[in-house]
Amino acid sequence: MAAPVRRVLLRPLRGVLTQIPGSGVASSGCRQLSVGLRVPAVQKPNEAVLESPSPWRLLGAVFVQRRAVLSRDRSPIEKDFAELLKQTELERSLLADHELRLLEDAERVSRKQEEDYDSDEDSGQDIVTAQDLEDTWDQKLRQFKPAQRVTGSIQKQLLNSEADKKADRTCLERCLADSLVLLVKEKIGGEDVWLLPQVQWENGETLRETAERALTTLTGNSIKATFLGNAPCGVYKYRFPKEVWTESCVGAKVFFFKALLGSGDLAPNKKGSHVWVSKTELQDYLKPQYLEQVGRFMVDL
């Protein structure tokens, strides 16, 4: 009973609303539901709001390392440790075929000395024992003359080359018993700073490709190096001097990649533009925070 009464009471109001455009009430006899909520438009992918650019500039740097050319003589503790490893390996190893053959020969000789030994076991053949082989090998070893090892005064002459005497750190022919690292001088703001070779990352390339470009774009470069892996071995973040700050860039993030020098060198195009330095000499060029990051992944090979 309540429903018919409600329809009768709402009929005049319905007639008024049908005259108002946009009310959502149709003039037909069918009721329609109108919701006064605004549905947001679906955002297309190409209409996505672009994020604000990062204030940090991405750089790729290469850690080019020349391995040691000469090996130094072992220290007393290194000699003792090597002897300990050799003795441990001998004690834990299994007998080799030659050692087993020596035991078999010794057992055969002991059987020959017994009274009930049957001579038919040898079948009348001449047996070459393992000891006979050792005697033959010893004769060949006495005839072998190994190459002379560079020691004493000759080694000192090589370790103190002309480049070492001149203290020419742009030359690769120095510190032959140590690993050397390539550093280049770059101008950041109004200051000359020693850094590893680096360039800015560009769209469409990986960070390793950026590091490779940092090496190939050096002036007078004939270096051929082998990169070790596709992942960076370290990262360093630093701020630019305040005089070169901008709203869109306040500093840089440098991603380091390791590479081993194969051949080639940098041509001396400008005095003091590059140096090859050892691990102990890095502190003469790099700033402390930068040196701390580089020292984390520098290993003498």
UniProtKB/TrEMBL annotation:
Query: Is Phosphoprotein there in the keyword field?
Result: no
Q: Which GO terms describe its cellular component?
A: mitochondrial inner membrane; mitochondrial large ribosomal subunit
InterPro entries, sorted: NUDIX_hydrolase-like_dom_sf, Ribosomal_mL46, Ribosomal_mL46_N, Ribosomal_mL46_NUDIX
Q: Where in the cell is it found?
A: Mitochondrion
Q: Which PROSITE patterns match?
A: PROKAR_LIPOPROTEIN (PS51257)
* Keyword match Heme: no
Could you list this entry's UniProt keywords, alphabetically sorted. Answer: Mitochondrion, Ribonucleoprotein, Ribosomal protein, Transit peptide
Which family is it part of? Belongs to the mitochondrion-specific ribosomal protein mL46 family.
What is this protein called in UniProt?
Answer: Large ribosomal subunit protein mL46
Q: Highest lineage ranks of the organism? A: Eukaryota, Metazoa, Chordata, Craniata, Vertebrata
